[in-house]
Fold:
Amino acid sequence: MAERLTHERRVRGGHRDSVKKMVSELEEFLASIEEHDSLTVSARLNQLKRSMEEKLETIITLDAAILALIEEDELARAIEEADAFKASMYMALAMITEKLAVESSAGASPPAVTPRVSSSSSQAKLPKLTLRPFNGDVTQWLTFWDSFKSAVHENDAISDIDK
Structure:
């Protein structure tokens, strides 16, 4: 059992080192982001995000296996250590998500002419607006907020009461 615990910790350590390297690459890339075109920025950020999400799943699985093998007196320290590392990963993923949102909004060209419909015109019955509910996952917050903001918050056609 001690051999398996040692092996699981080494495997997790390797994955954590890989994540630390990805975070360093992310920081370097974000520092030099102006040097790259928006397609390169978007592609690199998406690649880093996907890789980090996969590593996060692997590390969570390894953490669970390690917690099942360790002694009770080490349990609290191991949980705190695992939570701290996961928090740093969530922070990096949130930075990527936010930067991708900024890049996509900056890359989208505004329409040349925006037709305005008089607010006094009759209200047409539209299909029910459905938004994916926010489940509390930090990595999904910006996606939810962007959808909500564009569909409801900044929609002048919806009255304040309906909002």
